[in-house]
Design goal:
single chain, alpha+beta, Structural Genomics Hypothetical 15.5 Kd Protein In mrcA-pckA Intergenic Region, Chain A, Alpha-Beta Plaits, 9-stranded mixed β-sheet, 7 helices, elongated, Pseudouridine synthase
Length: 249
């Protein structure tokens, strides 16, 4: 009976190095060795008898899964490895020994709620389009926003040839003297620069953007650059697909 083989990216994800999608990128970048040979093609299969290394470090089996919520500050890249040697969100978690990676992405100048983990299965679940995880953003925009102006976002707008899913929108504040507004946008998609592109589409260029909530996880008690462990019941809810936000009493 032959030993069961698995795709290389799945093995890397199960070892807690990166999500399966991120593991594919790592492979294509030539950062993975199998039995001493660099593998840079997807589709490679390995067994438990093969020695796999990522960035020269062997996979030592399944790490204990860890989960952190970070209030990402401005000027930090959302990645675990940056070719330009810029500060990454993983660098902020300097006292964390596990090889965590971000779930999804926030732009360099966007702040707010970001989940980091080494649980590849949960990361894939949360990032999959079918997951429909709500992401709530507050944007400071140029101009005096009106509900009529924001209405197209509720129906979906075409960006780069593809229509966005309907979003929830609300106006928090309009400063007529400074000619700026603060609006809340809730989406469940994860395209690059999506909220900025959506608001620009309706004539409201973004000056500042913060993600206030990811699923039911908010920034209560976290200053920019601070992070905390997820509680056991929070992890359990995420794995169960219960992303509902329950307002605190």
């Amino acid at each position: 009976m032959t030993e069961e083989s698995q795709r290389l990216q799945k093995v890397i994800a199960q070892a807690g190095i990166a999500s399966r999608r991120a593991a594919e990128t790592i492979i294509l970048e030539g950062r993975v060795e199998v039995n001493g040979q660099v593998v840079s093609q997807l589709g490679t299969k390995v067994t438990a008898q093969d020695e796999v290394k990522v960035d020269g470090v062997p996979l030592d089996g399944q790490e204990k899964h860890v989960y952190y919520l970070l209030n990402k500050p401005r000027g930090v890249v959302t990645t675990s490895h940056d070719d330009k040697d810029r500060k990454t969100v993983v660098d902020i978690l300097e006292d964390v020994d596990a090889r965590v990676y971000p779930v999804g992405r926030l732009d360099y100048d966007t702040t707010g709620a970001l989940l980091l983990t080494n649980d590849g299965d949960l990361a894939n679940q949360l990032m999959h389009p079918k997951g429909r995880v709500d992401k709530v953003y507050t944007a400071k925009v140029k101009g005096l926003a009106t509900l009529e102006q924001l209405a197209p976002l509720k129906r979906g707008v075409v960006i780069k040839g593809k229509k966005t899913a309907p979003a929830k929108v609300a106006i928090e504040k309009v400063d007529r003297d400074k000619k700026v507004s603060f609006v809340t946008v809730t989406i469940h998609e994860g395209r690059n620069h999506q909220v900025k592109d959506m608001l620009a589409k309706v004539g409201l260029p973004v000056e500042k953007l913060r993600r206030d909530r990811y699923a039911f996880l908010d920034l209560l008690g976290l200053q920019p650059g601070e992070y905390r462990d997820l509680k056991h019941d929070e992890v359990k809810r995420l794995k169960a697909g219960d992303y509902r936000f329950l307002r605190r009493k």
